[in-house]
Design a protein that fits this description.
The chain is 56% helix and 8% strand. It is an alpha/beta fold.
Length: 632
């Protein structure tokens, strides 16, 4: 099947009352095709819908919600008389005063609305019609069951699984309404108004004049191959010929060349933006990687555009964007709609070009990615933050904007508590989040010097890794004996290059202590005592140094977990094969740490350990690079 052209879909919203009344003097009749499963909504789903409708009605009094409660889309395709007779059998009485539509998706919602209408209007039924293709050989049992809901023998009369679910749904709705009426006598009339007048469905109509396989569309939708995000609905609405040009006006019919050309131009821009947002690196830097797992990316950009143009826009939840744009188009003249449509795409283009400019500028990219990662507590705040950054960018020179980003980092993220003088006092146990921020900023400042860009896209976030491992965690592991053997070998090799007799004797003493410990039942306190001695006498570390910035590096949470509590040389061996793998996102400065590029560059470097000299030179570099952000 060819991909459906979104711009040609007939997309609109219809109130439930409009579904009941029909169109052009004809009532709606919905055919549920046989490829769909039976009706299976349970009590929780039905009660949730009813509670939402009731809450919506109550909220309208306080003007805290929009004009309509919007249900998820239903996807339909109009059927001709010949097709109806073919699918419902020769005995079916075709109704010439009805418009028939195959329900490709949304039959559960549509059937529930039908049952609610049946329950609310027992004495004076007001509803649309539903037919079931699989009933053609079953004497139309499902149809008859729905029409007799409320009778005492409805479920017994029809020996089909759907009947039981229909009856149970009807009873749930009836009980829910009865309970409400007991507390509020006006509840019934209020809910009737809410359901009929204030509830809308998104009507998503497939072209009837195209050879579309509805079953394949249904399967693709349910497999997630055809996304029905809010953005897709907005796109279909904005590019819909029926909105841009009423069919009743001959010169503005959908086949008008100028209209088609304009639609194609907007559609190309939309597709260009959508394709660009598929770049995970670009996506991660404008969102701070907060939306890296499951994200309607175009939805986010449209929300940015709306927030830019309408500071009062704060709606959350599904289908809010569709409702927003629909309300803006409602009641406008054809010329007004065209002008508004142009302004929408002009705004999208400006935002997209701005993001492209940032992405091409390593400083703007790095600083904005950092700000988006650590500023903004939730999705709404991050949306407003990005919108604010776009506004500042449009009103400043490039150099002024970069300086603004630096000041934002200093003021709004780091604050005044962290200074260059107390940087060395930060420790892993108490200041882990702050250290994570500083390590990322350290990476960024180093990358800025070489015109490089930080990789913000990691699947499960960032963490802080000890370069030299914490021995307290080793004590409880099964690798303790293996660790001692490797430390013995490392110290033995180091002895070969040492000329100082006293140091050699000390190393020999440590080797003997290792041998003695391995020949006994190893106790945790004995191991920790020996490990601390190795830290201090071989590597020059004390316990406090272990948790300070000079012994810490930034890694993705996944890579950090894979390293565990291995000694430096083992961590290095594990990281070396993936240091330059772009999919792993090893930060630039972390690569340099494990390549010992900060360490004093001697003729031969000792890659078996991370010692106090390495620590001090690395920390000095951190202070140098972070100076701009930690001084007044």
């Amino acid at each position: 099947m060819e991909e459906l052209n979104t711009s040609n879909r007939n997309l609109r919203s219809l109130s439930i009352n409009e579904l009941i009344v029909g169109e052009n003097g004809k009532k709606y009749c919905f055919l549920i095709p046989s490829y769909q499963r039976g009706y299976r909504w349970e009590s929780k789903q039905i009660e949730t819908l009813l509670d939402d409708l009731w809450e919506f009605h109550a909220s309208k009094k306080d003007a805290t919600v929009g004009e309509f409660y919007c249900l998820q889309p239903i996807i339909v395709k109009q059927l001709a008389e010949q097709e109806i007779k073919k699918r419902l059998g020769d005995s079916y009485k075709y109704k010439s005063d009805e418009n028939y539509y195959e329900v490709v998706d949304g039959q559960q919602r549509l059937t529930t609305i039908y049952i609610i209408l049946r329950s609310f209007y027992e004495r004076n039924p007001q509803y649309f019609d539903i037919e079931f293709e699989r009933d053609a050989e079953n004497n139309y049992a499902r149809k008859h069951c729905l029409e007799t809901l409320g009778s005492t023998n409805a479920s017994e009369a029809f020996q089909i699984a759907d009947a039981q679910y229909f009856v149970e749904a009807y009873n749930i709705v009836t009980k829910w309404l009865t309970d409400k009426v007991k507390k509020d006598s006006a509840a019934e009339s209020q809910m009737q108004t809410t359901v009929k007048q204030e509830t809308k469905i998104i009507w998503y109509e497939l072209p009837s004049d195209q050879n579309i396989d509805c079953y394949l569309v249904f399967r693709n939708i349910n497999n997630g191959k055809i996304p029905l995000t809010d953005a897709e609905l907005v796109k279909a609405m904005l590019l819909n010929s029926r909105i841009c040009s009423p069919d009743t006006d001959e010169k503005f019919r959908p086949n008008n060349t100028s209209i088609k050309r304009e639609q194609e131009r907007y559609a190309r821009l939309w597709d260009e933006i959508q394709h660009a947002l598929e770049n995970d690196q670009l996506w991660a830097f404008i969102t701070g990687n907060h939306f890296s797992r499951v994200s309607p990316r175009m939805d986010f950009l449209i929300k940015v555009a709306v927030t830019q143009g309408d500071k009062d826009y704060n709606q959350e939840g599904e289908l809010k964007l569709f409702s927003y744009y629909e309300s803006k188009l409602k009641g406008q003249t054809l010329d007004g709609k065209k002008k508004y449509l142009k302004s929408v795409f002009d705004d999208l283009r400006k935002i997209y070009r701005t993001i492209q400019d940032w992405y091409a500028s390593y400083e703007a990219y790095n600083y904005i990615g950092f700000i988006m990662t650590y500023k903004g507590k939730n999705a709404t705040e991050r949306l407003q933050l990005l919108s604010s950054l776009i506004g500042h960018y449009q009103n400043k020179t490039r150099s002024e904007f970069v300086q603004y980003l630096i000041e934002t980092i200093k003021k709004d993220i780091l604050g005044t508590k962290i200074t260059l003088s107390n940087l060395s006092t930060l420790n892993y146990e108490d200041d882990r989040k702050v250290i994570e921020q500083l390590l990322m900023l350290f990476n960024i400042t180093e990358l800025n010097q070489i015109g490089g860009k930080f990789n913000f896209y990691v699947k499960h976030g960032w963490s802080v890794e000890h370069i030299k491992a914490q021995h307290s965690k080793f004590a409880a592991s099964e690798d303790i004996l293996d660790f001692l053997k490797k430390e013995r070998l490392r110290i033995s090799e180091a002895m070969k290059t040492i000329s100082d007799k006293k140091v050699k004797q000390n190393y020999q003493s440590i080797i003997q202590a290792i041998d003695d410990l391995m020949n006994t039942q190893i106790k945790e306190e004995d191991f920790l005592r020996l490990a601390t001695r190795i830290d201090e006498e071989v590597d020059g570390f004390d316990e406090i140094d272990m948790h300070r910035m000079g012994n810490l590096a930034l890694l993705s949470s996944d890579d950090n977990s894979s390293l565990g509590n291995s000694p430096f040389y083992e961590k290095r061996e594990k990281l070396l094969p993936i240091l330059d793998d772009p999919s792993r996102g090893i930060p630039y400065s972390t690569k340099r740490v494990f390549l010992k590029m900060y360490s004093p560059q001697k003729f031969t470097l000792d890659f078996t350990k991370w010692d106090k000299n390495d620590f001090e030179v690395y920390h000095k570099k951190q202070c140098e690079m972070l100076k701009t952000f930690l001084e007044g």
